Amino acid sequence: MPGHFEPLPGGGAAVALDDVEISIIRSLAVQLLELIGPGPGADAPEDPLAELFAEGPSEPPADPVLRRLFPDAYSDPEQAPGAPAEAEEQRAHSAEFRRYTENDLRAGKRENALAVIRALDALAPVGEGGAVLKLAPEESKLWLGALNDLRLAIGARLEITDEDDTDLLYRLPDEDARKPMVMAYLWLGGLQETLVTTLMP
Predict the structure, then answer these.
(1) Phi, psi of 135 (to 5 degrees)
(2) Rounded distance between C-alpha atoms, residue 64 and residue 158, angstroms
């Protein structure tokens, strides 16, 4: 179980994490929450009807991490082949789609990150530091979403755009300032991959 998720009898998954690993995952999840920001009307009394009709932003986020987490629904107009009119149409469709979906997407990503933080905060230490994290099947899905978002966020900071970029990460010298972030990216990838395996029938 150390270093990777294993399936639990009857469903769910478990992984042994040491104190440093728990701290890293929790810190990254908190940073992700801060980046995503509070939901619309977070300081106002809940009004389900108002929330139902609340519109999100129509423009892509300026931050490259948020652009990776909330990409345009249609291909990037700057890279779209064809006439300018087609690019403008794609831009309009993307803006419309974003306006009606981004708030819900942000809420889902907040829920995933909060599930990670709560699960880690509820862990009981065992042995010489660390603990065994046990997830029910539904919790596993929330964790899977959060791990994916964390990797996307780190990948955006590392400017990873394709598999070739990932291969280069393995060859970075130890003195490279990006090395700790690279190690976190690769480690989270391993956790994500083994968690996916536990969810397979």
Answers:
(1) -120, 135
(2) 11
SS3 content of the chain, % helix, strand, coil (to 5): 60, 5, 35
- The number of helix segments (H) and strand segments (E) in the chain equals 7, 3
Answer whether 0.70 is exceeded by the pTM.
yes
Q: Which pLDDT band, with edges at 50, 70 and 90, does 178 fall under?
A: confident
Left, alpha or beta for 120 (phi > 0: left; psi -120 to 50: alpha)? Answer: alpha
Q: What is the maximal distance between C-alpha atoms in the chain?
A: 64
Q: Are 29 and 146 a contacting pair, CB within 8 Å?
A: yes
| Structure token pair of residue 80 | 């779209």
pLDDT recorded at residue 50: 54
Distance from chain centroid for Cα 81: 30
Distance CA 157, CA 65 (A): 7
Handedness of CA 112, 118, 120, 124 (dihedral sign): negative
Please provide the average confidence, as pLDDT, over all residues in the chain.
Answer: 84
